[in-house]
Structures are given as C-alpha cells and as structure tokens.
Amino acid sequence: MNDAQSKIYDILKARGIDAENADGIKEEDIPEASERFSKLMEIYYSMKVTADMEIPYWYNRLWWENDGDILEVRRARAVGGAYAHSTPTVLPYEKLVMSKTKNFRGAFPFPWVCASFFNSLAESLMNEVDAPAESEADAVSVVGAGGGNVTESYGDIISIAKKFGMRKEEIPVLVKVSKYWEGISVEDISDKYAQMLPDYDQFKRNMDAVVVMFDSFAIPQGREVINYYMPLQYGFDRIIQLCDEKINETMGEAGEDGILGMSRGYYYAAMKEITAGLSKWCDNYGKRAEDLATREPDEEVRANYLEIAQVMHNVAHKRPSTFREALQMTLCCHLGVVNEDPQSGQSIGRLGQVLQPFYEKDMEDGITTDEEVIELLELYRIKITCIECFASAGVSGGVLSGNTFNNLSLGGQNYDGLSAVTPLEYLIVEAAMRAKTPQPTLSVLYDEKTPEDFLMKAAACTKLGMGFPAWMNNQTGMNFMLRQYGAEGMDLYDARAWCLGGCLESAPGCFMPLDYNGKVTMIPGGASPTCGTGIHFTGLPKILELVLTNGLDKRTGKQVFPPHNEKIDTYEQMVDLWKKYLDISNRIVNRINNMQMDIWRKYNMPAVNSLLKPDCFAKGQHIGNCGSRYNACINFESCGTITFINSLASIKKNVFDDRAFTLEEMTEALVNNFGFKTAYETNVFSPDFRESTESASKYDRIFAACIHAPKYGNADSYVDSLLKDYHMFMLHYLPTLRSYYGKPEYLCQISVSTHGPQGFVTLATPDGRLAGTTYSDGSVSAAAGTDKNGIYAIFESATVYDHSQNQNAQMNLKLHPSAVKGLSGTRKLLDVIRAYMRKGGFHVQFNVVGSDTLKEAQKEPDKYRDLMVRVAGFTQYWCEIGKPIQDEVIYRTEYDQA
Amino acid sequence: MKHVKCVNFLNLDCEKGMCALSKAIVPIDGEGSDACQSYQPAPECGNCRHFYDGDKYGMGMCKGYEKENWAYATCGAFSCEKYESRRYQEA
C-alpha cells in the first residue's frame, strides 16, 4: 500500500468506511438476499408475462352502467370499481402484497384507449380459440422464448403483442369488451378529428416511414414522478371525509373561474369514488390473507398471513403508522396509478426521503431493525420489477424493451438546500445490491453536498453490473427546472424537489409538509403530469437521409416529404433543408399528438394520479384540467443524435471542405449500403459486421472516407462544434411548438430502445454506419467503436453545450469489470463520475460487464437468465431484449481503464 | 376438478399457480392439473347463483346487481360483494 492509498483509507475510515476490509471487495462478499426474496425470485424466473380480463371487464361494465354521468365521476367509478373487484393474490412468502392483476407478472389491455389493435385481431383470435386443442404433450412442452415473454401461442395460451400470454377462455371477453370501443376509443376519436387536418397524409407518411416512432395515446401517462403525500398524510378514510367537506364547499360554486370553477365539485365527487375503490382494493387483500390463514397448517405462515391482513386493513382506512404500512401504502398508490392507463415511466421518486420519517420512528420505538427494513425493500424490488405495460408489440418491444422504468431517485438537495440523503437511502442501495432485479432502477442526484460515503456505496452498487445507479447532475437538473418552469412560478425550493420521471425525463416536483412523529418533514414528490407525450422519437438521421433523397424513402419507395428539388451546393443549404423537413414533421405530428392527448384528458383523465398530484386536490381540478402545479412538461424526443452529428461531419468534411466526392456520389453509396449486405439480410446488427456484395469495391473509397471522417467523442472541435450548433438551434426552435397545455416544448434526449427500430428503417449513413444497424445510443454516447481517445475525451465532447438547456442528455459507457476492481476501483469510478459532473455533464451510466460475457449470453441465453444490462435509461434482463439492441450493447466501446 | 378451480389455487401466470396448502407449483393444463382431495370450489362467476345462460365460451349473464349485465364464467369473484355460491344455495 503506498502513502497516497494509505491516506485515502484513513480519510475513509474517519467517515465510517473500513477500507482494509473493503479493498478487494467481491460480489460474493455482499450479504445474501433474504430467504423470502429468493423464494419469490425463483417463482419470478419461471413466470410468463400474462394478460387477463378481470379489470377490463369490470371497467367496461361500470363505465357503461354509468352512461350519462359526469365524465370524471364516471371514469373514477370505473377505475375504482375495477380495482375493488379484482382478485387479490397473496403468496405465502410475501410480506408486501398487491399486484397489477391477480397474476404475479400481469397486465391487461385498455381497449377504451386503443381498440383497433384488438378489433382487427378479433377474427383471428376467435379462430385460435375455436381451433382443436393441441396434444397434451405439445401443450405442456412448448414455451415462449426470451425469459417471461410469450412470443408464440401454445396449448391454451394465446400470444398477444408477441409478449403477453392470455388464456383461451378469456379471448372472447377481450373481443367482446373491445367491440364496445370500436370507433370511440381515444385512438379512434382523435384520429377522426385528425383527419380534418389538410396535412393528415403527411402525418401518416411520417409514421409509416418511422420518421416518428409512435402515438401519444399509446402510453399517455408516465415519464413523471408520483406523489405519495396525500395518503401518507391523511389515509383513505380521512381523504373521503375531506372530499365531502370540499363537495359541501364547492359544488354549485364557480368561484372566480367561469370556465372550470364549476368542475371542482365534480372533481371531489370523483376523488371520493376513486379513494373508496383503493380502500376496498386494500381491504380485499386483507380478507384474502385472513381467508388463507384459516386454512393454513403452518403456524409461522399463518401468522404471516394475519400480519398481512392487519397491515392491509389499516392501510385501507388509516394513515400509515409504521414503515411497513407506509411502504405498502406507496405500493398501493403506485399500482393504482400504473393500472389506470397503458403506462411506462411512472417513477417512484425520492422514496428514501419520503419514507424516512416512518423508518426513523420505527427505529426510535425499537419495533424494527435495519435487516427487517432491507428485507421489505428487497420484496419491494420484486413488486416493482413485476410491473408490466400492456401495449402494442412496437411499444412493448421496440420502445420499452419490456421495461416500465419505475425509477427511484436518491440524493439531491432537501427543502433547506442541504444534502437530502437519508439513512433509509443507504438501505435502499443495500437492498438493491443484495436483491438483484432490474426494477426499480436507481438514480443518484449527484450534488457536491452529497456525503462521500453515500457516493462510494452507490458507486459500489454501480460496479455490480446491473447498470444502476445511474448518475445525474443535481445542479444541472435544478437549473433546467428553473429555466423550463420559471414562467409557472417555479422557485428555488421547488427546483430542489426535482428528480427523474421515467428512465431519464427530468420532472418537476415540490415539497409537502408531512406531519408525523410529532414533527413536520418536508417530503419531495412529483408535481406535473407526464413529462413526455409530445413528439415521440424523431429519427434525426432518417430526416437527413430524406434530405439527400429529395424526400423519397428509398427503402420503401414512398415519398415521405415533399421533394425539395434543390441542388445542394453548400453545407449550410443542406442543414437548412434538414431543418425544413424536421419542421414539416414536427408541425403536423405535434398537432395530432395534442389532439390525442386532449381526447385522452377529456374522456380518460387520470383518476388516482389526480388525487395524488399537487395541486389537484387544492385546486379541485384533475390533471387534464391543469390541476398539477406545473404543466410545461410536454417534450420533443430525439433519437440518433450522434449518428446524425457524425453524418453531418462526414458530409461537411468529405463533400464540402475536401471535395473528395460529390453529395450525389455519397448518396448513391448510401443507397447501395457502401456495397455491403444490409442488416436485414444478415440479421446481424453490430456496426462491426460487414459482408461484401459484388459491388463493394465500387464504394471502397467513399466508405473509407466516411469511416475516417471526424467523429464525436474524441475532443475534436470540428465535429463537436456541430453538436453545439444543433443544440443552439433546438433550444430556440422547439419552444415554438406548443403542447395541449398551451406551453412551450423542449428537447428530451432519451433513445430508450428506439435506436434499434429507427436504425432498422434507415439506410447507410454518411458516418459509415450500415443500413439497418442501430443508431448510436443515448444522446452524447459516442457511436460504438469511434471513441479512440479515452473517457475524458468523450466528456470534453459532450459538454460543448450547456446541458441544462434540455430535459436531459444521455451518456452510456461500458467498463470492463477489471477496470474498477476493488475499493480503489470504486474510487476511480467515482472520480470519473465526478469529473463529468463537474464539467456540467447531466447524466452518465455504466455497463460494468465484459463483451465476452454478453456474446456468450447471446449464444446460450438459458445459462444467463439473471444477467442484466443497461440499455438506455433502464436495466433489463438480457434474454428479454431484442437482438438488434443486444448487438448494439455488445459493440459499445469497452473501456478497460477508468 | 382442476387446481385452477380450487379456492386454494393462488394465481401466478397463464399456465400455472401455487397450491396454498402444499406450496407446490401446479399447472393449469395437462398432466398434474387435476385437483387433490382438499379441493374446494373457488369463488368465480361460473359458480355464482346470479350467473346464468352461459354459452360455449363461458359467456353468460349476471343478475347480481341492480343493472343486469353480461359476465363470464371464469372471472374471479372473491372480491364481488354479490357473489353467492351456487353450491351453498343448493345445500
């Protein structure tokens, strides 16, 4: 040990870290997860993702039985009534209970949002039901591929959206419920009015060409942070009393608001309905636990059932009085929200700060221990991992990769501007290290005030290869909040309450006064609707391709944009045409997405979320009526930023500066994939895989020039300056687009998994990327294999613009485990993170895994059922993500030195 | 009688569940899906006296509530306040 190391160890020891024992820390040194967790995970690994019809049946029945009632009341009655009728499943190893559906890893369709998918399949689905049964041997031996995904029908199981298994006997119910919504679902009504727009055909052409990835109604909630304050402060019975008081106060009174003032009374009537539904839902779990206790032979298991029953009956009526009850209450509310719409990215927020008062009191009273709390947090991880989103195959697979992005944030600043880290947050990280599940993913809001030992613990967790915690810059996030929400009154206090909604969508929050344990604690939570649902995933390189092809999609032979018919003589002219096409796309897509979300908020307004989200209850308005405190939250989402920037650099350098060849010659090379076979032909999506055709030699010179053109990520100002130009343009351009809330839009840079499908539809690009392969991931990650100058060079390139201009920036890095081995490796990792944060980088996350391991896992997925990787802002089981994204992750540059 | 129709069946997914008594994973279909001697019928719409006119798909009618409506036989009814076991009624 040298002097420097010795000094570091002394400092760490003074802060409570035993470096001598921690040096050389290995994964196996981390304590095992609890027995309950292990038993439930054993079940989880054998689970099929399942859709059933209980909740849709009851929603549909109650909706139509209340035909003619005030819409928000009708909606709340249908949602709450459906929850109150669902079958509660309680397993003997559980302590925390409640699930989306009766199944362990369940979900269900929402035909009132989107019915066309099911109605178009009605006949074929019924044919499958009527088909003769397979032999018993077939029925039990054929299983869906890819972890829990049911990608094919088998036996009495029908595959829907290539992911969900539904039992045959439920298919007629799906078909019947869907029929009610034919022509009147959110999708259908918004499409009816969208067709009145003269540019509707342009919209369809955009979507068909996958210039833009998907519609807003597909997942109308999420990419936001939930708020648990109301039920923690009051409990359900008291909330119902408060609703009665508010009804008495506001029903029939408009106040000063002649447009929405009268709606307040109806809002409170609706909130009373939804609260009663949530309460009954909890009570039913309590009753089922009691029922199971009566027939349970084992005394210990019976006692566990009775404990569950007591917790659930308390949560059903009273405000929580223990940590366990508080955690159970947050889970109930979380499931209540994620069940009211197709949804991803309903983030948990800063749970360790919200629940700290409950943890603190239990510890003071001596009624729990840290180990018991960790066990509950481990079990909580399973519950969140089981949250599935029922959406189309494109959304489930192409966008989400099967993940639902329930992000849990840690750190940041508290109400008083000090470090917000709580003792409970250490246990949350500890539970994540012991109990390895993809959700909830963890995000550290890095702040210079964050305690060093907490950062080291979080870095040690990052090293475990699960891809989390990801690291976000707290100050940059706060600055973005003040920039975007200042016009709505955001002050420094509320700016401190921000955190991640979805995988990487910075979402506004606020602090609320929780009166508990004889004191008031300001707890953070979300304060806006979805921070997404604007223009979803525009493929920036695809638009550039269409500029070069005069608006014609050479892959499909269809004209996407009007021909510009210009001979492009300068780089600036080409960029102007790109901006023109982008604007054509944005104007029509934005208007139609606005209509989709407007129809959604009129007929399908959030019920549970409108109870929880400040200031809905104070204003008496649901989320659709701008009940939330902040509403300037709708965005434009980009994809393929660095592929686009590298392509611009290649054209600028080769065509306009060096005049090595003409733009027409380059375009011809792109159309012919530089003489190589496409990824569609080879089914290999790695940028490093090239199989020549007979015409390969014809494009050798151009291809070489494209490959050797300046590349982002090497601290090369030639290309980095183009990134800066792009950001300055977007900063001023995007606010000219207005959301359905009448607020300016802004740039969101998460690719999620869309760089796979959007790359798939894009020809070869001028940076040397071949047709059909994925785009670069994230927004400031280097294109795979092109960053040659080390991590710090990427940081230099990434921070050529102010990251607080946008909702986010995304940097994915891959480290070989040997690069961060032992405590010194943890320190190096933290140094890398800190260096990036201090340069103003917003986000960085790591895959700490070797490419060899991933290649092996691709060959033999069954041997790697529990292997997880970081894709974009989320972690997913390797075996449950598609091959294009697998290839892309394998090929990311692997650093063997931090 | 099948495990899936038993009150001790705990739902897991579309192909299996857990027996609350034995804690064993039990299949819904095929070999091993037959219930044991401890079988007791689960509360589901098809077992309710308010359910009638079920067709070959198990789709029938529910007259348990003020407004009569269609229902389906395999729908869970543990949480239904109007559920009345047909067997109990017959007894």
TrEMBL record, chain B:
Protein name: 4-hydroxyphenylacetate decarboxylase small subunit
Organism of provenance: Lacrimispora xylanisolvens
Family statement: Belongs to the HPA decarboxylase small subunit family.
Domain 4-hydroxyphenylacetate decarboxylase small gamma subunit N-terminal: 1-31
NCBIfam families named in the record: glycyl_HPDL_Sma
Keyword Lyase found: yes
Enzyme class: lyase
Domain of life: Bacteria
Cofactor(s) of this protein: [4Fe-4S] cluster
Pfam families: 4HPAD_g_N, HPIP_like
Catalytic reaction equation(s): 4-hydroxyphenylacetate + H(+) = 4-methylphenol + CO2; 3,4-dihydroxyphenylacetate + H(+) = 4-methylcatechol + CO2
InterPro entries, A to Z: 4HPAD_g_N, HPA_decarboxylase_ss_sf, HpdC_C
One Gene Ontology MF term: 4 iron, 4 sulfur cluster binding
Keyword field contains 4Fe-4S: yes
